[in-house]
Amino acid sequence: MKILKIILIGLFFQTLIIAQKPNKNVKPYPYGNPVITHMYTADASPRVLPDGRMWMVTSVDSDEGGGYPTMHKYHTFSTADMKTWVDHGPIFNIDDIMPSTVQKQDWALWAPDMIYRDGKYYLYYPVWIHHTDSVRTNGAPGRVVTSFIGVAVSDAPDKHFKVLNPKIEGTSGIDPAVFEDNDGTFYLLWGHEKIAKLKDNMMELETKAKELDLGTDRFMEAIWLHKKNDKYYISYHTKYGNKIDKDNPDDPNRDKSEIAYSYADNILGPYTYGGVVNYELGVNVNNGPALPGKSYVPWRLTQSNHVGIAEYHGQDYLFYHTSALSSWRQDEFKNMGTWTQRSVCIDKLDYTKDGSIIPVNQTLEGVPSVKINQPYAVSLKKESPLNIEAGKPLVFKNINLGTGYYFLEFNISNINGVGDLEFRLNSPTGKLIGTYKNVKKGHFIQAIRGANGLNDIYVMLKNNNSNAFATFNQLDLIAGAPKGKSN
Ligand code: FUB
Fold first, then answer.
1. Are 397 and 426 members of one domain?
2. In this structure, are 342 and 411 located in the same domain?
3. Is the pTM here over 0.85, yes or no?
4. How far is residue 148's CA from residue 159's CA, in Å, rounded to a whole number?
5. Number of folded domains that form the chain
6. For the segment 180-212, what is each residue's pLDDT rounded down to a tens digit?
7. Pocket around ligand 1: residues whose beta carbon is below 6 Å from it?
8. Fewest beta carbons less than 10 Å away: which of 139, 186, 232, 348?
């Protein structure tokens, strides 16, 4: 009950209409963080896609003011070097989901996530409905808030997404995060520590939502799941309470607005509390411009924080957001900026030897440019056609996976029986890097994880019937270096 109350208080503050100053400073933003400086972006969800680029889908904060109720669209952005981002424009907006009978200011699109599966891109979005006092639900007076998760689909991450399921039954709350495990199972996480398996159609839950045990009561929102060396990490924005003294932001008695994490060996937990991933926004920024009369940067924020974590060629990155750009565009860092005019920042995320996350160093300059010196694709198929039989692995020796490949692309021209294709490193029981479930005839692209360095690749058809077989016409590792443009 106490947790629910704190969450509701947090959400209440977030929905306040925000007064803000005009963005009148047109001088170019001088630093590398935030990474997008021509508009306000928040809630980044990063993922490498089959073109080998790092993509992110973001919420969009309003230029004109209005705060969280005016968040009405998503953009996608991509990069080939982690430094230079291309804006692919709006891919979804509130008119795609809102009935014409309701008022626009009552509906908002908050933190989304996006994933690739079988030639399609799935966008999971939280619909936040904030009925103003003029609107009555079932005749009941007062303000009513509700939120749930919908899913939309597209053929490309930079094309318009169409609604697939406007409300996924069994969800309520915000901040969906989607995750594919190495065994080919897709999970949806959202709201208040909830997780469920997704059906193959990606638009319904296969299992009932389970409430995760994160080993702490610090969780507030913005759940994110990533996996590293077979360990599951769940990161989240912590409850920050309402005792915020702007003149004493480091007050030791105040619950801090941090990104914390919990870890587990099993995706469903129980998880153990691990500590801080990202301190409050603007804490310990070296050589940052100080707010006049203060010792901290003008985007020192004691509320709002968000997390997305993704690996790109051997380095993990934390995606978060700050109001540095707002403070710059309003009056060149003389004031705090508006905290609901947020902008996505990226910094490196590292681990200790035992797998603990080292709190991220928030930087002004952002991350260095990444150069990838390996081809986009490595072909594994040596003969044509190539048969794989159940129980008899195909082995490809000494494959140089360099700093990483992110997908396997294959074409199956013939099949007898149905089974799963497993991809492992170095032995039939070695590290599982990806699984394609219930393989059929056709062309497929399957995500893989942890495929780097020099390895033997084992491909196995899992079927109890020893007569089962499949015929590959193509079997390539792809997304080693980005396709096409170099930035
Ligand atoms: O951006 C709107 C909301 O603020 C998100 O859904 C939360 O995670 C917080 O970032």
1. yes
2. no
3. yes
4. 24
5. 2
6. 999 999 999 999 899 999 999 999 999 999 999
7. 14, 42-43, 59, 68, 110-111, 174-175, 221-222, 304, 306
8. 139
